[in-house]
Design a protein that fits this description.
With 252 residues, the chain is of the alpha/beta class. It has seven helices and seven strands. The chain has a seven-stranded parallel sheet with strand order 3-2-1-4-5-6-7, sandwiched between helices. Helix 1 crosses helix 7, helix 3 runs parallel beside helix 4 and helix 4 packs parallel to helix 5. The longest helix is centred in the middle third of the chain and has 30 residues. The protein is globular and about 65 Å long. Belongs to the short-chain dehydrogenases/reductases (SDR) family.
Length: 252
Amino acid sequence: MTSYSLHGRAALVTGATKGIGLAVARALTEAGARVCVTARDSVEVRRVARELDGAGLPGDLADPALPRALVALALREFGRLDVLVNNAAVNQPLGPLMDAEPALWARAFAVNVGAPLRLTQCAWRGWMREHGGAVVNVCTEGAVHVGAGVGAYSVSKAALLRLTEQLAGELGPGVRVNSVSPGLTRTGMARFAWEGRTPDGLPLERFGEPEDVARAVLWLVSGEADWVTGADLLVDGGTRVRRARVHHLPGA
């Protein structure tokens, strides 16, 4: 996918059995990194770990004990942990926030915000504090505006965006912390939003693919981005700008 080299490095990717997470795990592996993956489906975790010749541990990131176990596994298998990609997320509850069930709201924040913080804490204490590293949080283009029916997801991702900035300020210079914010990407979780639709008005005239986001993540964790921290890389095909319709002025 790229000439960026991560040979000798080790990475942990969450939500890594499909969509953006799987594309990221594959990209890091192709660049030479050893990769530890996690997701809730134990069969899929084992399959992807075998495919990548890496390691895997299934689990629910709402469980506060899982981050420590994941970091311990990566350190045991690889002897180091240089890269952390916090990709796992839930988009429930869908619908108006006035109808949001408290348990689902709490779960959205536990997985989308709490788990990235706990994973970063464990990675910091286990390896990165002494040896450095790079963390990338997968946010969303929708974190900065109101989205119909996805309020819990957007609000939790806005919190993750702010968490990224806070951690970047606290963990430098040894650890760089950045985020990527995909636009509408053709993943299973977002199928309800892109299936049957066309990318009307997008300057690049297509929805995103998981590999588009993976390339951005790979750049952020590579040495090419050594002077980048606290940044949010927008990977949205031009969603925020849309296409400008240029009309000639009379007499022009």
